[in-house]
TrEMBL record:
It comes from Oryza glaberrima. SUPFAM superfamilies: Six-hairpin glycosidases (SSF48208). GO terms for molecular function: carbohydrate binding; cellulase activity. Its EC number is 3.2.1.4. The active site is at H427, D479, E488. This is Endoglucanase. Belongs to the glycosyl hydrolase 9 (cellulase E) family.
Length: 625
């Protein structure tokens, strides 16, 4: 269950492994560094995850053969057919808000990267994944002002560890209506249906029109009967609470309806409500199933890129949306005057201790689409800490995807089934219990916990494509089924990656021009090193009789110019190091993969842990802009 309760674990520090383990770790990392990532293969597996999460009567041609039919009477006891849709994560609740967000993001991927999906022969599978969700939403929208938004209860569901095919927990369904409003989930479902309508329009016009009809009705319902959905639906509040309120979903739905229809009334809505609803006021550093502001701001920036002067009546407001979009993007790129998204020492964006990868995937998506918007308009992103070219934005997005696929301190793929080293103890009921086709006997609630949840054995069913919650803030990951904050995959985490994989698969090589060091690097203004190093020890502890220290070194650019190439010599280093990238030469390091320049006055942070004295760091080569 991808709940968002604010539980912050005690800070952990990475201990130096034994010598043999360190050699293996470095060998794995070197292997990953040298190999190219198969983005097309990752895209294929990403879609398999959505198949594994399907609820209802499964098609005969399904690719995930260990899954069977399940929840075939959802809604029947309350007089409605709610069979179908998706299970949210490692459990069997169908939560409407994150499911709708996932369908929106799958559809946005098609809208932006349709050609790439066609070229990769994946479009039909993405549309199938979208349709599995939209068919369910259409059934759940039983009246103009009523929407069924949840099936199953998280509390009772969590008392059982069983396969979906054996489900014995209550399948109570919950709805919103005029007396129990839920503008967030109604708005997000309207957005999902509008985005899907645009995705389907060239291929199934009648279905597209049906989705638009429901989208428009749901938007009117959400806007007319305003109210927080988790006030009306207490069963969702513990697991998917609405922290950002419903105003972002109202703007988000209107923006998608404008994208799908071109009807000016929706552009007028986002313009007139921009300030009151926070669209041009919220400057955020996350994009998620709850907080849509960054996605909204990027989507409305697209209107400026595409329409330019023809959007003149709304240009001033759209530019305010764009300014907030670029705040988010610059924060991701670490160029936002200190107001940046946190990074792990190994180079991963880190937003939350709970299911952090969902924020990585959503951010990577926005970075990728905005890079393409800029490239098509021949523009650049102007951040407080420097100008960023489209290719550099895409390079950073690629670095996040590469981290997910294995270019990280552990050398582990955080996408299940990708590569040879990935999580094998996923917090997922279906993956952890033998398939009904392998073991036909029913597995009961407590039996599931005793035999499978607490088992140290690897999952009998590989949950291909599942993006787990990911490592902690220090790049550490415990492959433990009980570690639900980090080991559980979600629809919301996987969905944005679909479009990103499609885009990267179409241009797998990083064609961003590489910088080469100048034969004679110019001297810094102070006549010495271009960097001012400040070394601190931030923690110390004893393990097996050895004292270990966590060293943090900040290297400030004092040469007066942006440094575009840097080579450091780091000697007497016995532990792993973060914040720089190794080269093939002994003791030589360069900028980390997510950085291409260090602006004047900016700082590079290097972290390493080892016993004994500190390592010695010196500048060997550098080049300035």
């Amino acid at each position: 269950m991808a709940a968002t309760m604010n539980k912050t674990p005690a800070t952990t520090f990475l201990l130096i492994p034994a010598a043999a383990s360190l050699v293996l770790l470095l060998a794995a990392a070197a292997s990953v560094e040298a190999s190219a990532f198969d983005y097309a293969g990752a895209f294929d597996k990403c879609l398999l995850f959505f198949e594994a999460q399907r609820s209802g009567k499964l098609p005969a041609d399904r690719l995930v053969r260990w899954r069977g039919d399940s929840a075939l009477t959802d809604g029947f006891s309350q007089g409605v057919d709610l069979v179908g849709g998706y299970y949210d994560s490692g459990d069997h609740v169908k939560f409407g808000l994150p499911m709708a967000y996932a369908v929106t993001m799958l559809s946005w991927g098609v809208v932006e990267f349709e050609k790439e999906m066609v070229d990769g022969n994946k479009l039909h599978r993405v549309l199938d994944a979208i349709r599995w969700g939209t068919n369910y939403f259409v059934k759940a929208h039983t009246q103009h002002n009523a929407l069924w938004v949840q099936v199953g209860d998280g509390d009772s569901d969590h008392l059982c560890w069983e396969r979906a095919e054996d489900m014995s927990t209550p399948r109570t369904a919950f709805k919103i209506d005029i007396n129990n409003p839920g503008s967030e989930v109604a708005g997000e479902t309207a957005a999902a249906l509008a985005a899907a309508a645009k995705a389907f329009k060239p291929y199934d016009r009648m279905y597209s029109d049906l989705l638009l009809l429901h989208s428009k009705q749901l938007f009117t319902f959400a806007d007319t009967f305003r109210g927080k959905y988790d006030d009306s639906l207490q069963s969702a509040k513990k697991f998917y609470p609405s922290a950002s309120g419903y105003q972002d979903e109202l703007l988000w739905a209107a923006a998608w309806l404008y994208e799908a229809t071109g009807d000016e009334q929706y552009l007028r809505y986002v313009s007139q409500n921009a300030e009151a609803f926070g669209g041009t006021g919220w400057a955020v550093t996350e994009f998620s199933w709850d907080n849509k502001y960054a996605g909204l701001q990027v989507l409305l920036s697209k209107v400026l890129f595409e329409q330019g002067g023809s959007a003149a009546g709304y240009a001033d407001t759209l530019k305010q949306y764009q300014a907030k979009a670029e705040f988010f993007l610059c924060a991701c790129l670490q160029k936002n005057n200190g107001h940046n998204v946190k990074m792990t020492p190994g180079g991963l964006m880190y937003v939350s201790d709970w299911s952090n990868m969902q924020y990585v995937s959503s951010s990577a998506f926005l970075l990728t689409v905005y890079a393409d918007y800029l490239a098509e308009s021949r523009g650049t992103l102007r951040c407080p800490d420097g100008e960023v070219k489209p290719a550099e934005i895409l390079r950073f997005a690629r670095s996040q995807v590469d981290y997910v696929l294995g270019k990280n301190p552990k050398g582990m793929s955080y996408m299940v089934g990708y590569g040879s080293y990935y999580p094998t103890h996923v917090h997922h009921r279906g993956a952890s219990i033998p398939s009904i086709y392998a073991m036909n006997a029913t597995v009961g609630c407590m039996e599931g916990f005793d035999k499978y949840y607490n088992s140290k054995n690897a999952d009998p069913n590989v949950l291909h494509g599942a993006l787990v919650g990911g490592p902690d803030a220090n790049d550490a990951y415990d492959d433990d089924r009980c570690n639900y904050q980090h080991a559980e995959p979600t629809l919301a985490g996987n969905a944005p990656m679909s479009g990103v994989f499609a885009r990267l698969a179409a241009s797998p090589a990083d064609n961003t021009p590489e910088y080469t060091p100048a034969p004679n690097a110019p001297s810094p203004s102070n006549g010495g090193s271009p960097l001012e190093f400040v070394h601190t020890v931030t923690n110390t502890w004893k393990a097996n009789g050895v004292d270990y220290y966590r060293h943090v070194v900040t290297a400030k650019n004092t040469c007066g110019h942006a440094i575009t190439y840097l080579k450091l010599q780091i000697k007497e280093l016995s532990g792993e190091i973060y914040g720089v990238s190794r080269t093939n030469a002994k003791d030589m390091y360069e900028f980390p993969s997510w950085m291409t320049r260090l602006d004047a006055g900016a700082q590079l942070t290097i972290v390493y842990i080892q016993g004994g004295p500190a390592a010695k760091i010196a500048v060997v080569e550098y080049k300035t802009a």
